[in-house]
Amino acid sequence: MKNFFIILIKFIFGLLLSLLILYFDFIVFSISGKTNVVDWQIVIYVAFSFFTAFLIWVIVFTKINYKCNFLIFFLIVIWLFLPRFLPNVMKAFDIDSCLDSGLCREGITNMQDNKGNSISINKENCINNGYKWYEEDKSCDLRKNNK
Fold it and tell me: Which residues pair with 62 in a beta bridge?
């Protein structure tokens, strides 16, 4: 009975991590499809994501020594920080964050000014149109209630 619970916990852990990886891949695919930017960075990120998901299921269903488990854990950590080294992948996450929260980083997308014209997001345009600018992360708060 004890082994059953251990296998069940490992299965649930593997399932949750795999769903997280698929969610991140969906974000990257959907944003890169809308912006028509599919390059080697996106391909490397998605390939490494599938490789990481495969390694997670290797941990779940096989008995391997602790050195291999540590190596696989290290590869998962690399996958988590991979968008920091791939600018187009990070841009996809920034665009998704902008669409979700209204906090948009400088240069990732356009906003509309008070006349309805499309202008780029930067400090000058943000302040001139009455939005709040955050200098520390160079982002503009485009939400209506924070003017």
Answer: none
Per residue of the chain (147 residues), give pLDDT as tens: 778 888 888 889 889 989 999 999 998 888 887 777 678 888 899 999 999 889 888 888 887 787 877 888 888 889 889 998 998 888 888 888 888 888 888 877 666 666 667 778 888 888 888 888 998 888 888 876 555
Q: Helix crossing, 87-101 with 40-61: angle to 10°?
A: 80
CB 104 within 8 A of CB 140: yes
End-to-end CA distance of the chain: 59
Cβ contact 102:140 at 8 Å: no
Residue pair 92/28 in contact by the 8 Å Cβ criterion: yes
A 10 A CB-CB count for 105 gives: 18
pTM as predicted: 0.76
Give how far the C-alpha of residue 2 lies from the chain's centroid of Cα atoms, to the nearest Å: 36
Which amino acid belongs to residue 82?
A: L
Total residues belonging to the chain: 147
Produce one character per residue of 46-79: b if its CB has 16 or more CB atoms within 10 Å, e if not: bebbeebbebbeebbeeeeeeeeeeebeeebeeb
